[in-house]
């Protein structure tokens, strides 16, 4: 059973008004909280970390084919802005078309990566970014499949803490954990 098979949408997802931004401010607050929780849970379960605004409206996350309802681009923008306000979203580009959905903060990702390095005897060893993101030794890790730029941000945190050094070798990126 894949991770995607394990994911269940919350009850609100089957409620048609959930797909229309509510005018009552109290109701809207509850609705946005539910959407933010859903986005974070969906991204965590599917091990996703990048959202493309142009493609998001057709995503199963924001489009319920059973109800024939989907969120408007404006409502998706409101949800993404809420995630940004809570520190769970960081824009990748200036045009706000792509963003990282941070179901873990960059600091938390740094801790996860370092814990993996310690637990797997990888201190004083160079690992390529490819090995970390796509390697067989990391298939069960939360960071497996992570966006390379987000990985780089997390490793820079470790570099600032003197727990790692980022290395560039023949056009490939790697990291040595201390």
TrEMBL record:
One of its GO terms (cellular component) is ESCRT II complex. It is found in: Cytoplasm. Belongs to the VPS25 family. The gene is RvY_07368. One of its GO terms (molecular function) is structural molecule activity. PANTHER family: VACUOLAR PROTEIN SORTING-ASSOCIATED PROTEIN VPS25, VACUOLAR PROTEIN-SORTING-ASSOCIATED PROTEIN 25. GO terms for biological process: macroautophagy; protein transport to vacuole involved in ubiquitin-dependent protein catabolic process via the multivesicular body sorting pathway. Keywords: Cytoplasm, Protein transport, Transport. InterPro entries: ESCRT-II_cplx_Vps25-sub, ESCRT-II_cplx_Vps25-sub_N, WH-like_DNA-bd_sf, WH_DNA-bd_sf. This is Vacuolar protein-sorting-associated protein 25.
């Amino acid at each position: 059973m894949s991770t995607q098979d394990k994911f269940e949408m919350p009850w609100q997802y089957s409620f048609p008004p959930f797909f229309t931004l509510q005018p009552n401010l109290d109701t809207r607050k509850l609705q946005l909280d539910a959407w933010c929780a859903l986005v974070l849970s969906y991204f965590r379960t599917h091990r996703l970390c990048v959202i493309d605004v142009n493609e998001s409206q057709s995503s199963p996350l924001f489009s319920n084919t059973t109800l024939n309802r989907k969120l408007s681009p404006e409502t998706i923008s409101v949800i993404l802005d809420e995630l940004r306000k809570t520190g769970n979203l960081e824009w990748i580009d200036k045009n706000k078309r792509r963003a990282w959905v941070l179901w873990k903060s960059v600091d938390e990702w740094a801790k996860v990566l370092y814990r993996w390095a310690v637990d797997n005897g990888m201190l004083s060893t160079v690992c390529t970014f490819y090995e970390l993101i796509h390697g067989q030794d990391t298939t069960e890790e939360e960071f497996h499949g992570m966006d390379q730029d987000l990985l780089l941000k997390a490793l820079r945190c470790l570099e600032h803490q003197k727990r790692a050094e980022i290395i560039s070798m023949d056009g490939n990126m790697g990291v040595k954990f201390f």
